[in-house]
Structures are given as structure tokens and as C-alpha cells.
């Protein structure tokens, strides 16, 4: 099995994109991109680690949790997590990021590429407070590219189709999986216990 190692071989295999696909990349957010972000409660954020490996993390909130400052600037609050802060460390070394915005029930997605910087300004962070809890930092993302992505992947996966849903019981709880992976002697946290614990630390 030979690995492909050059663009010419890839192009010979795949051909070239049609003109519409090649031209659809915007350098700023238009009204359709802005509306998509306003309706989106979920995005996947990508960055690159110091080892050169790609990294991705899910981010979610109420629709519009990513704030549009202007056609070239987004603000994304960093909600409480596991404190690994992989993405934030990655951004310190390489500010390039990508965002994939999803809207439940919509098979198209929005892709945004740009650069990010980490803000800890009190006024900015408190703009994103939920109750008395404000994020410790907010990402300011400068948009370099934005474009709508076709529905094929979601059509193939039937992601939003209720008939395609998998029963959660098909997998052990995350606590049980971590117990096995880390060879822990303690009982694995049940799914119900995990959800209750998460509810206390969502914001």
C-alpha cells in the first residue's frame, strides 16, 4: 500500500473543484454567515499543538453563544472544563484556529478559519456571565475565511434523524470507560451521577 505524497497525484485522482466551490470562500462574515452563527448552539474548535498534531474540542451554549462583534471578529467564552487547557496552550504557540458551526436539524454547516487571542479582561468576561459565574477567559477570533459546507456528511450519517439515534446504554458510562482505561480501583461513575455533577459546573 503506497501513501500519496504530492498534490499532483491527488489532483489526478480527484480532479479540480467546480468553480462555485472554489469561489464560495468569503474573507468576512456576510448576512448568511452571521445568521448561521446566531442560530448555532454548538461549534467544534480546532487548533494545532506544539507537536504539530491537530486538536479539536466541542463548545456549546444557547444559540448565539458565540458573539459576533463585527464581520471579521467573534468572541467565544471559555466555559469550565477539565482544566487541561489544551486549546488555550495551543493558541499561545499557534493562533490559527478553525470553527465548524452546527444547527440541530440543519444538514449544512458553516466553516470559519482565522486567528485567536486569549482575553482575560474583566469587562469582556463579565459580558458572558451566567448568573454570577463569568468565564476566566474569552477567545477573540479574527475571521480570515468563512464558507458554507454542503449537507452530504450529515445526510450520510443521518445525524439529526431520530430513527438513527443510538441508545446511550450501548456504551458504558464515561466513568466506567475511564475506570478501565486508567486501571482505577474505584467504582466507575454512572451516567446519571456524571450528569448531576456536570449540572453543578456547567458555568
TrEMBL record:
<dbReference type="InterPro" id="IPR012349">
    <property type="entry name" value="Split_barrel_FMN-bd"/>
</dbReference>
<dbReference type="Pfam" id="PF01243">
    <property type="entry name" value="PNPOx_N"/>
</dbReference>
<feature type="domain" description="Pyridoxamine 5'-phosphate oxidase N-terminal">
    <location>
        <begin position="29"/>
        <end position="150"/>
    </location>
</feature>
<dbReference type="InterPro" id="IPR024029">
    <property type="entry name" value="Pyridox_Oxase_FMN-dep"/>
</dbReference>
<protein>
    <submittedName>
        <fullName>Pyridoxamine 5'-phosphate oxidase, FMN-binding family</fullName>
    </submittedName>
</protein>
<dbReference type="InterPro" id="IPR011576">
    <property type="entry name" value="Pyridox_Oxase_N"/>
</dbReference>
